[in-house]
């Protein structure tokens, strides 16, 4: 099946049909938010008949009641449903007329119904009208429309659940141009291969899902909050992958039959039937007639589960001696039941089921069988006052009982579309209720009685649905809605009836379907797999483990199911407690989508001894805190959970929630450093400091040991602004300002959400922490020991048992077993300290760290002194060496050698820790100590990308020579701006008073402004300043080889000189790299006149004052304009004396300068306004807000 073609067509068809229906409505004077007057003539000149006028009137009332958009959408999907239904029937030869409606016998877009128009016989067809239209010759489209609508109405006789009589207003809005090229009908025939329609009724489901896809995306985008009732179908409907349906049905319906029929051969026909490893089935001594089987899908969608269940039931009936056509009738009338909140889905499920039956029985459409497929009704508009019309001949006692029962049923379905089949319906006397509602005296019908009769069918439908919802079923199998953003009404209902299972609607359905299932019946699902592990579903797990049985389960790879944005699992429960082990497939490691998952399941069924197929007793789950469904863990692994848990020895807490990070959180480089301190150990210290900004642990990407120290939080005067924002008193201690007493304490911290692995980092005193940077507190020795454990393989394996969803919750960390080995404690702590030290050196090597001291390429020996000091602090006495650095390349080579040795040292230490902890936890037979290079979270340097090997790919800390040199160029800019100085360590200026005495070796820009030009115009030309910078560091003798070394990693051809390459980098690429380094919160801001680069340069945010743009205008823009004019004058003089190609070249160059002059003049006008405005900025407002003020003259940040 070509799903790409199906998807593309369905998405396009929805938009096309909506547009065409809107156009048709406009012809009848009906537009959105326009007054709709009476009319006799349509806008296309058509005289409206009385029927047309009445249809238009009804349409207007419909729009007033439901809204324009909803009405148009409803008409569009009505036609879409009919188009695809008739297309399916014509391709498969199921139309009673046996005449194709849209295509010819050879599948051309030449409707056979037109060529056979005068011969066709359809119920309700006006043959004289057909003859007139046919003979006219110019009314082919009108003839087709009439025949098509007549065909739809005729199909009402055999498929009333799909082809309801078309509303007059719907017919009025049948799109024009259906016979034209590239119409919906044309592309439906041409774009979707005919074979995809043949005996593959699943195509209806795929078309339905894809038709709704854009609306689903829109709904999900709109409802960042809760989803409204009318949008629940669009937000939650997913077409279940075919093989998953087969797996669930094979192991629910299939297993239910097989274990009651020892002689059955059904299992040989069920591809996904799972046998225990011993190959033995435990049979149940209970005979059952296939006609007594009851199967329900209460989120039926387009009927995918019912369709495959139909096929399985056919095999069951055949085993019992029935013919296929007999079986098909019984299946429709006795076996299958479906419910959905969406009427469109109900229609398609009904149609698909009837087509499935038709494939087994040619005459079944004429049997008048009504499948038990319903949409959930609503009773909101039914007035109970009409009850007095009914039941007049019933005895008083019966009448009272019937009215009470009906009132109860109607109450259940008030706002029924919001609740769907989670509505709990108690058994009532449905036979009595039906007698009551059908008991009406038709002899004297007044207006009141007539109005009551209008509600009769609606009430009968509620009886039908109620009876389905009150029954018990042998098998309930479905793909329930995944929805945790419930609207208020739905949330209230769930809280009232399913309080312990309220986290998501799918978990409500899991519990609800146990109620619908008979004891020892089976309940099958496909859902997100979070219910197996995370704390918010613990009560559901407890209920299942204590009262039910997990028969079989597939845990899919994290992103296998592309149709959903969550990792999923498929499973079957037995509705009752049994001792048999569950059968599990762990497909977590098999990437490549659902096709790969299918292959692996089939391989495991064929070879149950494979490594990813497990048998597990649910009793083992109780041994693990939180009772996760950790079916793969060994007995040896389980023993560890009998030990002390981390929470018994450590304090583990969720952190603060500011409520508005945009107001209270900044990247540290945005603020003035004088308003910041990382030197507090308590709230008292922070208050005494008088500072506003403090380090803030908020998670970040995967990194171990040390780092991710990038953010600061406004905790001025103990967070008075945050308290005021939340309206809470200053002495309040709880959400959102949690754990006040632990803020600023030494800790271990980690990211709540990760896309890969678990990374724990040491956090020194001075930090506050956020909900995204949950933290652990302990005595110092235990803290180091615990960090070692949490950074080990052992920890990650345990976390994958407790919660493999990559959300590392406090509860999960708390439940990690802590086994303290006194014998190994000293070496563990020593290794942990060294790893922290190695990672800290790496983190502080980058200028994006506030503890950055010196760039290794600028002063490698000084950098090494800092490293030696760090070793001394942890008790390692280093051998200090002084290294001769001749040039920049030498500095690079020494730094690369050092960084890579640190990388391998850290890797060796991690593997040593793994080896120790694996032995402590007794898991030598299950785990190995090796660590992949991609999981070592410090820099490793390669000369080029070509050298990067597979085992390290994906490591975001990889550096190339290009990266290292660009960091050197960034450091040069920092020195030129005055942020850094070659004469002191760390920051020289990032706010406060600018101190010129800090700079002697290399002087910074006098005003914090740098100009970039495409050639040397000024004394302070950027390339010449860089040359000067290199000479200060490395001397004059190697200047050219240093420039060549820098240029060797920059863009540009072989014929471009080193100075020009460097110039081009600053002019065109530096700012992109700078923004990337500082995560789009740059500290040097690039002013930019436009695409010609006439005026481009940087100014340093922390040196900004209200005269900044006046300085740029006078000292840089005016100056460059003069140079351009001088250059243009020189070129024009040369042009007057040149000829031929030389003249053309000079004229081209002159044109470039003319463009630059114009661009610079336009730019000067822009900045004059800013210069005259003397704008002050507040650094505390952050880069994003301040950047907006000057956005018209600054480069866009991408």
TrEMBL record:
Catalyzed reactions per annotation: a 2'-deoxyadenosine in DNA + S-adenosyl-L-methionine = an N(6)-methyl-2'-deoxyadenosine in DNA + S-adenosyl-L-homocysteine + H(+)
UniProt-listed PROSITE patterns: N6_MTASE
Residue ranges constituting the Type II methyltransferase M.TaqI-like domain according to the UniProt record: 335-560
EC numbers: 2.1.1.72
Transmembrane segments: none
Pfam families assigned: Eco57I
Top class in the EC scheme: transferase
Keyword field contains Amino-acid biosynthesis: no
An example molecular function term from Gene Ontology annotations: nucleic acid binding
Entries under Gene3D superfamilies matching the protein: Vaccinia Virus protein VP39
Protein name: site-specific DNA-methyltransferase (adenine-specific)
């Amino acid at each position: 099946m070509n799903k790409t073609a199906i998807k593309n067509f369905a998405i396009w068809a929805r938009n096309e049909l909506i547009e065409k229906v809107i156009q048709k409505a406009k012809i009848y004077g009906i537009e959105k938010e326009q007054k709709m007057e009476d009319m006799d003539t349509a806008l296309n000149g058509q005289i409206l008949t009385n029927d047309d006028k009445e249809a238009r009137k009804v349409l207007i009332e419909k729009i007033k009641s439901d809204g324009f958009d909803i009405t148009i959408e409803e008409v569009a999907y009505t036609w879409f449903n009919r188009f695809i239904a008739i297309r399916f029937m014509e391709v498969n030869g199921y139309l009673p007329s046996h005449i194709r409606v849209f295509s010819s016998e050879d599948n051309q877009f030449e409707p056979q119904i037109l060529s056979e128009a005068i011969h066709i016989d359809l119920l309700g067809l006006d043959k004289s009208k057909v003859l007139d239209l046919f003979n006219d010759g110019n009314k082919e489209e009108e003839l087709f429309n009439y025949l098509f609508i007549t065909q739809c109405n005729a199909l009402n006789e055999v498929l009333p659940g799909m082809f309801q009589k078309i509303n007059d207003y719907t017919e009025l809005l049948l799109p024009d141009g259906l016979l034209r090229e590239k119409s919906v009908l044309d592309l439906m025939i041409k774009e979707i291969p005919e074979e995809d329609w043949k005996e593959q009724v699943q195509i209806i489901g795929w078309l339905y899902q894809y038709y709704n896809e854009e609306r689903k995306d829109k709904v999900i985008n709109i409802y960042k909050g809760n989803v409204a009732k009318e949008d629940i179908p669009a937000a939650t409907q997913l077409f279940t992958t075919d093989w998953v349906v087969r797996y669930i049905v094979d192991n629910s319906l299939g297993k239910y039959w097989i274990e009651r029929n020892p002689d059955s051969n059904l299992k040989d026909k069920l591809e996904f039937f799972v046998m225990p490893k011993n190959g033995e089935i435990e049979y149940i001594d209970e005979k059952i007639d296939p006609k007594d089987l009851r199967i329900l899908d209460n989120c039926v969608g387009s009927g995918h589960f019912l369709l495959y269940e139909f096929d399985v039931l056919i095999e069951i009936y055949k085993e019992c001696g029935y013919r296929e056509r007999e079986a098909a009738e019984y299946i429709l009338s006795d076996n299958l039941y479906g419910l959905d909140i969406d009427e469109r889905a109900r229609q398609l499920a009904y149609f698909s089921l009837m087509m499935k039956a038709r494939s087994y029985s040619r005459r079944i459409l004429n049997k008048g069988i009504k499948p038990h497929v319903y949409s959930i009704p609503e009773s909101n508009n039914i007035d109970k006052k009409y009850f007095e019309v009914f039941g007049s001949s019933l005895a008083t006692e019966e009448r009272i009982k019937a009215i009470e029962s009906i009132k109860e049923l109607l109450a259940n379905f008030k706002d029924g579309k919001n609740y769907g089949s989670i509505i709990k319906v108690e058994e009532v006397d449905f036979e009595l209720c039906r007698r009551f509602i059908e008991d009406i005296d038709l002899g004297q019908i007044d207006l009141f009685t007539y109005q009551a009769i209008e509600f009769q069918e609606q009430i009968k439908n509620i009886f039908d649905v109620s009876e389905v919802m009150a029954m018990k079923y042998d098998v309930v199998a479905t793909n329930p809605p995944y929805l945790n953003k419930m609207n208020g009404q739905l949330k209230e209902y769930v809280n009232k009836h399913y309080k312990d299972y309220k986290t998501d609607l799918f978990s409500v359905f899991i519990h609800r379907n146990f109620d619908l299932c008979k004891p020892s019946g089976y309940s099958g699902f496909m859902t997100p797999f979070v219910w197996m592990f995370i704390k918010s579903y613990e009560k559901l797990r407890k209920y299942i483990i204590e009262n039910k049985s997990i028969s079989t389960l597939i845990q899919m790879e994290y992103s296998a199911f592309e149709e959903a944005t969550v990792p999923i699992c498929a499973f079957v429960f037995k509705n009752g407690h049994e001792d048999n082990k569950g059968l599990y497939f762990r497909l977590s490691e098999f990437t490549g989508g659902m096709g790969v998952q299918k292959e692996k399941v089939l391989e495991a069924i064929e070879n149950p001894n494979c490594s990813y197929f497990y048998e597990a007793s649910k009793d083992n789950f109780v041994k693990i805190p939180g009772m996760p469904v950790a079916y793969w863990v060994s007995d040896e692994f389980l023993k560890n959970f009998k030990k002390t848990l981390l929470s018994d020895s450590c304090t583990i807490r969720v952190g603060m929630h500011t409520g508005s990070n945009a107001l209270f959180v900044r990247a540290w480089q945005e603020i003035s450093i004088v308003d910041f301190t990382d030197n507090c150990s308590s709230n008292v210290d922070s208050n005494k400091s008088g500072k506003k900004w403090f380090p803030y642990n908020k998670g970040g990407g995967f990194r171990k040991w040390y780092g991710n120290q990038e953010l600061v939080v406004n905790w001025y005067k103990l967070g008075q602004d945050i308290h005021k924002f939340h309206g809470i008193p200053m002495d309040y201690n709880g959400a959102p300002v949690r754990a006040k007493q632990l803020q600023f304490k030494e800790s271990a911290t980690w990211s709540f959400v990760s896309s890969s692995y678990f990374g724990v980092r040491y956090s020194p005193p001075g930090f506050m922490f956020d909900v995204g940077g949950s933290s652990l507190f302990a005595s110092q020795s235990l803290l180091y020991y615990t960090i070692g454990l949490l950074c080990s393989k052992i920890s990650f394996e345990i976390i994958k048992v407790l919660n493999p969803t990559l959300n590392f919750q406090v509860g999960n960390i708390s439940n990690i077993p802590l086994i303290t080995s006194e014998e190994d404690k000293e070496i563990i702590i020593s290794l942990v300290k060294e790893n922290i030290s190695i990672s800290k050196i790496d983190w502080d090597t980058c200028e994006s760290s506030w503890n950055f001291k010196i760039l290794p390429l600028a002063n490698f020996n000084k950098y090494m002194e800092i490293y030696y000091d760090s070793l001394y602090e942890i008790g390692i006495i280093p051998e200090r060496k002084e290294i001769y650095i001749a040039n920049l390349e030498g500095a690079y080579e020494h730094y690369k050698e050092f960084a890579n040795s640190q990388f391998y040292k850290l890797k060796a230490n991690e593997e040593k820790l793994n080896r120790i902890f694996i032995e402590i936890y007794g898991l030598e037979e299950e785990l190995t100590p090796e660590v992949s290079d991609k999981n070592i979270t410090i820099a490793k340097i390669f000369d080029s990308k070509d050298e990067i090997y597979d085992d390290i790919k994906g490591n975001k800390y990889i550096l190339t020579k290009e990266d290292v040199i660009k960091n050197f160029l960034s450091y040069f800019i920092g020195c030129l701006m005055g942020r850094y100085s070659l004469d002191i360590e760390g920051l020289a200026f990032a706010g406060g008073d600018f101190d010129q005495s800090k700079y002697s070796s290399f002087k910074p820009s006098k005003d914090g402004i740098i100009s970039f030009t495409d050639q040397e115009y000024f004394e302070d030309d950027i390339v010449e300043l860089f040359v000067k910078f290199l000479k200060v560091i490395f001397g004059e003798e190697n200047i050219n080889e240093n420039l060549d070394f820098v240029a060797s990693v920059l863009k540009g051809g072989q014929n471009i000189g080193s100075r020009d390459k460097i110039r081009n980098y600053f002019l065109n690429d530096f700012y992109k790299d700078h923004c990337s380094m500082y995560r789009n919160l740059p500290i040097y801001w690039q002013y930019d006149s436009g695409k010609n680069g006439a005026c481009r340069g940087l100014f340093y945010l922390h040196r900004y004052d209200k005269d900044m743009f006046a300085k740029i205008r006078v000292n840089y823009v005016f100056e460059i304009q003069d140079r351009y004019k001088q250059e243009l004058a020189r070129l024009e003089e040369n042009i007057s004396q040149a000829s031929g190609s030389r003249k053309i070249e000079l004229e081209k160059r002159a044109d470039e300068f003319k463009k630059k002059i114009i661009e610079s003049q336009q730019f000067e006008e822009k900045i004059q306004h800013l210069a005259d405005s003397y704008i002050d900025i507040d650094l505390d407002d952050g880069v994003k807000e301040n950047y907006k003020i000057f956005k018209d003259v600054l480069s866009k940040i991408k």
